[in-house]
From TrEMBL, chain A:
Signal peptide: none annotated. This is Alpha-E domain-containing protein. The lineage of its organism: Bacteria, Pseudomonadati, Pseudomonadota, Alphaproteobacteria, Sneathiellales. It comes from the Bacteria. Residues 1-309 form the DUF403 domain.
UniProtKB/TrEMBL annotation, chain B:
It comes from Sneathiella sedimenti. InterPro entries: ATP-dep_Glu-Cys_Ligase-2 (IPR051680), CP_ATPgrasp_2 (IPR025841), UCP005522 (IPR016450). Residues 74-451 form the Circularly permuted ATP-grasp type domain. Pfam families: CP_ATPgrasp_2. This is Circularly permuted type 2 ATP-grasp protein. PANTHER family: BLR5612 PROTEIN, SLL1039 PROTEIN.
Length: 313, 475
């Protein structure tokens, strides 16, 4: 496979994953803003921060208000991480790697682009937001479904999955990075109703609120939430889950190519640390430090994969 | 000479009776509800859009990707008509390959005085770097798209030979797919020759031209300028259908005397490169030093037998519009036979008498740039305003050698489906030809381009033309 193709697949699926995650975060932020109007501005600020685009946002707007945040995160072409920008990016990468995709995956991606192009052609009102966010998630899911249902399980699939899981791990970690303080024991001791809303919101932004309730009926506590989102290997958006998959996919490539590369050496200890940690030890060590280090390692691994598999000449 | 032309309609002939190639189709059509056909027509458009069969338009931000309009009424050619076209095209393509070999070697045709020396020597499309180079298998034009027009029952003319990088074959294939998808019952009633082997034949034909350095199964790649190129869809489509890699210049470099592509495991050599970039951009070391689209040093590898480039560099000299007018002589010179297909009468404006005639009769002629393509820089005298005519006259006088002129042919028509029912529109035809050392293979049919505006003679997709499925009937 061409190095460029591997890179195109990797980024195509990073971008698709990002569109879905941004939609999820907006959904969670919107809910808080609706129910807690006093907290709205802070909430929008943290959504923008978790999307990693605070600088670009503040360069354009003075205030965190719903209309601007929604527009910036969904439609703004000057924001390279807006849903529209990443959907364009995903489709351009899909065109680049067209020969590596089945007709089903290509058509699902193209359909996603066509649908969202219409949907995001004009500013989205708050009234329409839930439906629009639902469509964004659904379109991304359709591509994923086509990928699972029609693609060979070979290196093409591995690079697509690596993109998905690296992006997802990054996204989950960023949500924790922005919201870690509401999970700290000092804040949780009081257990104010606002804390409850914040905890719900964190769970919601990784689509885990229902699963958490189901596994922990009647109790919601910050350490439990952190444990779930960081370490629970059953939750498909947890850091542990993502790294188990990343290491799996890298090991398939290693076996396929008969080559163990630097990225393999780098990924294994990240997974190992997640396996060996308990949530108590993470809190002892410092939740924020842990998350910051994780984000840094995850980025470095992405760069190493890019280099090891020659995405760029 | 072109006054009061009658237009030949391929479905209804001149007398208005359905011509025999269309009889079966007409039978089916007369049983169809027009409203259903129109629904099918919009379904076809949705199908093309979903599949992403688009072309990029340069310099138009808002409509960066457009669909080429597709008309659902097929263009039908009988087995007998096709057999003659096929012979004529093969003869022409063989002659062109012989001509290219000669022109880059001994230049017998010039020594024999059959074509003027200046036409070659002063021609930008002639590549001195190709002098004395023999491409693998002696094939120059691996892929040709011969543009044909028709003016009557037995009158076909070659308009252009397109010996460089003809495009449109993906539309030929997708048009058929679309028709099969929408009207499966039609294909069980009418026996139409299949076109679907084209990608397989292309792959084999390219493989048959593998260079001396190739050991084992030839590795084929398609070289594209990238996703912003107007024909990118076609490049990726062909690579996909052939199971070949789709590469850009920055994926390639010269490694150990071979052109190699950067893969996830290292650099792998390529044997045959089907390039969809122009000569000038192929190699920054040998041609345009600014080019980002090619591969530095590929020409040296080529000359040493390390890679096959399809089509060969320098083939442009054969589809130069000034050379075009000599093709009947070229066919005779190399095959010893009369040309089966006719050329359109052509005035070479470089010749003073011809220029004088062209200037006097500009409003009845079509004037083309010698090196132009895609309908750009062309004048259709009958459709031009007085002001356009006088502006063009000035351009002609300033640089006559840059132009040729042809009579306005009464191109045949085939009906298209409009909101008001069927209506005749002018068409042309581009059959696709594959050349290997073993054979010349012509896919039955080709791409029919159709001018969608009533009376218009401009069929180019870049100028608003559409396409039709083209049927060659079984014997």
């Amino acid at each position: 496979m061409l190095g460029k193709t591997a890179g195109g697949l990797f980024w195509m699926f990073r971008f698709l994953e990002r569109s879905e995650n941004t939609a999820r975060m907006l959904d969670a932020g919107f809910r808080i803003a609706l129910t807690r109007s006093t907290a709205a501005e802070n909430e929008w600020a943290s959504v923008v921060a978790a999307a990693g685009v605070t600088d670009a946002y503040t360069a354009k707007y003075d205030q965190y208000i719903a209309r601007n945040v929604i527009d910036f995160l969904l439609r703004d072409t000057s924001n390279s991480s807006s849903v529209w920008s990443v959907i364009e990016g995903a489709r351009n990468n899909a065109r680049l790697v067209r020969t590596a995709l089945t007709r089903e995956v290509w058509e699902a991606t193209n359909e996603c682009w066509i649908t969202l192009k219409d949907l995001l052609a004009h500013p989205i009102s708050e009234r329409d937001l839930p439906e629009v966010l639902g469509t964004i998630r659904q379109q991304s899911a359709l591509v994923r479904g086509a990928l699972h249902g029609t693609m060979l399980r070979n290196d093409i699939f591995d690079f697509a999955r690596l993109g998905t899981y690296l992006e997802r791990a990054d996204n989950t970690a960023r949500i924790l990075d922005v919201k870690y303080y509401v999970l700290l024991p000092s804040a949780s001791f009081v257990g104010s109703s606002l804390d409850n809303v914040q905890w719900e919101s964190i769970l919601r932004s990784v689509s885990a609120q229902r699963a958490f309730r189901w596994l922990n009926p009647g109790e919601i506590n910050p350490m439990g939430i952190a444990d779930f989102i960081i370490l629970d290997r059953r939750l498909p958006r947890s850091l542990s889950f993502c790294y188990a998959k990343i290491v799996d996919n890298l090991s398939y490539l290693e076996a396929d190519y008969g080559l163990r590369l630097d990225c393999h050496e780098m990924a294994a200890p990240i997974l190992q640390r997640l396996k060996e940690s308990s949530i108590a030890s993470i809190f002892d060590e410092g939740l924020h430090e842990f998350i910051t280090a994780f984000i840094r390692d995850n980025m470095a691994l992405g760069a190493q994969i890019e280099q090891d598999y020659r995405f760029i000449g | 000479m072109q006054k009061a032309q009658t237009v030949f309609d391929e479905m209804n002939g001149e007398a208005g009776d359905v011509r025999y190639p269309y009889e079966e189709y007409q039978k089916w059509l007369s049983g169809e509800d027009p409203a259903r056909l129109r629904r099918k027509s919009s379904a076809a458009e949705a199908f093309f859009r979903r599949t992403g069969i688009t072309f990029n338009v340069y310099g138009r931000e808002e409509a960066a990707e457009r669909l080429i309009p597709f008309d659902i009424i097929p263009r039908v050619i009988s087995a007998r008509e096709w057999a003659r076209l096929e012979r004529g095209i093969e003869q022409r393509v063989r002659a062109i390959n012989a001509f290219l070999h000669d022109i880059y070697h001994r230049q017998e045709i010039i020594r024999a005085g059959r074509i003027p020396k200046e036409l070659i020597a002063n021609n930008n499309a002639f590549l001195p770097q190709m002098i004395g180079v023999s491409p693998p298998g002696n094939v120059y034009t691996h892929i040709v798209g011969t543009d044909l027009v028709r003016t009557g029952e037995n009158e076909f003319y070659v308009l252009e030979d397109n010996a460089r990088t003809p495009s449109g074959v993906s539309y030929m294939l997708e048009n058929r797919e679309t028709m099969l998808h929408m009207f499966p019952e039609l294909f069980s009633q009418v026996r139409v020759r299949s076109v679907s082997d084209y990608p397989k034949n292309l792959r084999r034909s390219l493989g048959d031209c593998a260079p001396p350095a190739c050991d084992g199964k030839p590795v084929v790649a398609v070289l594209t300028p990238g996703i912003h190129n107007s024909a990118y869809f076609e490049h990726s489509f062909l690579a996909d259908q052939m199971g070949a890699e789709l590469v850009e210049g920055h994926d390639l470099r010269v490694v150990n005397g071979r052109v190699a592509m950067r893969t996830t495991r290292g650099y792998d050599p390529i044997d045959v490169l089907y390039r969809r970039v122009d000569d000038d951009f192929l190699d920054p070391l040998n041609f345009n030093p600014e080019s980002q689209l090619g591969v530095a040093g590929i020409m040296d590898v080529y000359r040493a037998g390390g890679i096959t480039i399809a089509n060969a560099p320098g083939t442009g000299i054969a589809d130069d519009k000034a050379i075009y007018s000599y093709i009947p002589e070229i066919v005779e010179f190399y095959t010893g036979e009369k040309s089966i297909l006719q050329n359109v009468p052509t005035w070479r404006c470089a010749e003073p008498d011809a220029l004088a005639y062209v200037l006097d009769n500009l409003d009845e002629l079509v004037v083309k740039e010698v090196h132009g393509s895609g309908g750009y820089g062309m004048l259709v005298g009958q459709a031009a305003s007085k002001r356009e005519l006088s502006a063009f006259r000035a351009k002609l006088k300033a640089n006559p050698g840059n132009y040729i002129a042809q009579p306005t042919l009464a191109l045949s028509t085939v009906p298209i489906l409009t909101n008001k029912g069927l209506a005749p529109r002018h068409v042309d035809l581009r059959p696709f030809v594959l050349v290997s050392p073993r054979s010349v293979n012509i896919t039955p049919g080709g791409l029919t381009r159709v001018a969608l505006k009533a009376g218009s003679l401009v069929v180019n997709s870049s100028q608003g033309g559409g396409t039709k499925d083209t049927w060659v009937l079984e014997e």
